[in-house]
Amino acid sequence: MRRILFDSPISRAGYLYATAFGLVWGSVWSTGRVEKRAGLYVFRGMPSFTFGRGGSCVGGCYLTSQNVGANVLEHEAVHKRQWQRYGMIFPLLYALAGRNPLKNRYEIEAGLKKGGYIR
């Protein structure tokens, strides 16, 4: 079952769907510069209600107000890879891992320090 869902054409389709959604969402709400960095479409100037915490990765898009440092983008690039691996199942897996980033395996994998969760 894992071969069918993870790192597969199905997960790739989910990643592309999420990226398309992120591109539309970012295009609608972004009031800042939009650029491609660290393999991500980075949408700045997003209102706080359009993303979680300091920013959110949706497929290959990173949505934020101004949180675009190099370390954060490296952290978000790992989330992009997680989207590619798990596809549309990723939001469910992330939610099941819990809201506490210090215990969430996907945040730990992306790097707590680079994500700004620890000093």
TrEMBL record:
Entry keywords, A to Z: Membrane, Transmembrane, Transmembrane helix
Transmembrane segments: 15-34
Protein name: Fe-S oxidoreductase
Organism: Cryobacterium ruanii
Taxon lineage: Bacteria, Bacillati, Actinomycetota, Actinomycetes, Micrococcales
